[in-house]
Design goal:
- This protein is an alpha+beta fold.
- It folds into 2 domains: 2-117, Ribonuclease H-like superfamily/Ribonuclease H (Nucleotidyltransferase, domain 5, 2-Layer Sandwich); 126-168, no CATH class.
- The protein is 46% helix and 12% strand.
- The protein has 7 helices and 4 strands; from the N terminus they run βαβααββαααα.
- Strands 1-2 form a two-stranded antiparallel sheet. A two-stranded parallel sheet has the order 3-4.
- The longest helix has 24 residues, at 102-125.
- The two termini are 26 Å apart.
């Protein structure tokens, strides 16, 4: 899950920071404020099949391109968190960009909130795996569910430990 966010020069949400440093509740608090204050926002997604086919890094690049292409306003250039997006726009790649750029930090928050909401929906469909608590990471509950039920259609089959339980 990725996001692209264009912010106005007067963007003033001082609490917007690296989404990994924010609690889920803080991200949820900031999310509507970002949507309200942003010039435009777009989300990009590469599903588990794409990730299994081309690897997570390339799938992130594809998802980022989809997010940029989905913006209702075409940006003049991109600030990107530590990678290059396969679009025809000038771009600056910033290491730890979500600590250095409000637009990257805002995009990070938007992407995490969308991801968390998606994982909550998956938790309703596959309650045994605890997706609402683990976001798909290999917690004890998740591993036990993989042992008992095998992978779901949303699992990345090339990733360990899922690959160990793939019954295909």
């Amino acid at each position: 899950m990725t996001a692209a966010v264009i912010l106005d020069k007067d963007f003033d949400l001082i609490e917007v920071n690296d989404s990994k440093k924010l609690t889920p509740n803080k991200r949820l608090e900031l999310f509507p404020k970002i949507l309200e204050k942003a010039v435009c926002v777009s989300v990009g997604l590469s599903n588990n099949d794409v990730i299994d086919q081309i690897n997570i890094y390339e799938a992130d690049r594809v998802a980022m391109a989809h997010a940029v292409e989905g913006l209702s306003v075409k940006p003049d250039s991109l600030l990107v968190d530590a990678m290059n997006v396969p679009v025809d726009l000038p771009q600056v790649s910033l290491i730890k960009g979500d600590n250095k750029s409000n637009s990257i930090a805002a995009a990070s928050i938007v992407a995490k909130v969308f991801r968390d909401n998606l994982m909550d929906a998956y938790a309703q469909k596959y309650p045994e795996y605890g997706f609402e608590k683990n976001a798909g990471y290999g917690t004890k509950q998740h591993i036990e569910a993989l042992k008992k039920y095998g992978p779901t259609p949303i699992h990345r089959l090339t990733f360990a430990p899922v690959s160990e339980f793939n019954k295909k």
